[in-house]
Amino acid sequence: xxxxxxxxxxxxxxxxxxxxxxxxxxxxxxxxxxxxxxxxxxxxxxxxxxxxxxxxxxxxxxxxxxxxxxxxxxxxxxxxxxxxxxxxxxxxxxxxxxxxxxxxxxxxxxxxxxxxxxxxxxxxxxxxxxxxxxxxxxxxxxxxxxxxxxxxxxxxxxxxxxxxxxxxxxxxxxxxxxxxxxxxxxxxxxxxxxxxxxxxxxxxxxxxxxxxxxxxxxxxxxxxxxxxxxxxxxxxxxxxxxxxxxxxxxxxxxxxxxxxxxxxxxxxxxxxxxxxxxxxxxxxxxxxx
Length: 289
Fold this sequence. Notes:
By secondary structure, this protein is mainly α. The chain contains 10 helices and no strands. Helix 2 (18-36) packs across helix 10, helix 6 (114-159) runs antiparallel to helix 7 (164-199) and helix 8 (204-217) packs across helix 9. The chain starts with a helix and ends with a helix.
């Protein structure tokens, strides 16, 4: 199976599903506002309304971060605790919406409708939730295997009086290794969702292992396709970051413009998520057994 064919077919399916992209964007936006706005005050209180936090926008400054955590540690801890639950909740929401996306993409002759989309979300939710649980366990084990040796190396570096740049260069290879391995298992989880919808099976754990075999036997195809699918999102992120850094937001009109640009970026990100699923589904369905 040519990954370029799956890539282009996934793009075409996404363009034909712009209504679903917009619905996905609206749902995530509304849920995000509902969940995040209440914690805005917590973040302000955690930062102590200090202008030092502005320095962190230009890059990580350990001294500034240490001062904020020292003087406002209780607020920061509350914010990170809330952030943990928000991340978990967004993962569950993403799992719920993934069912609707794949149900729509893999029903070739079905026109998009909100009712059918939410029916698909509900139909696959519990199976996808179990899959998310298995996936989290695997990712935790991977992190432990990678960062366990790193901890021993860092302890020795600390004992030998290593400075911050040396510690950074020690950590970086482990982080890169973790990202590569974590991405591999993320791809497996994606194909497990696709295969569950394609087969209608309720044997989630068994399907996860079958997807492990599928991805491993087609490693360069599945991994290469995913990396290819990341190119446009990363370029878009780079362009958006450049705009954010270089535009001087000093008038009400510029605030409005940047708000619209930001929302366009979020809408495009919703489209990229559906593009990934569409391309992977095409690769899965057209790959020989």
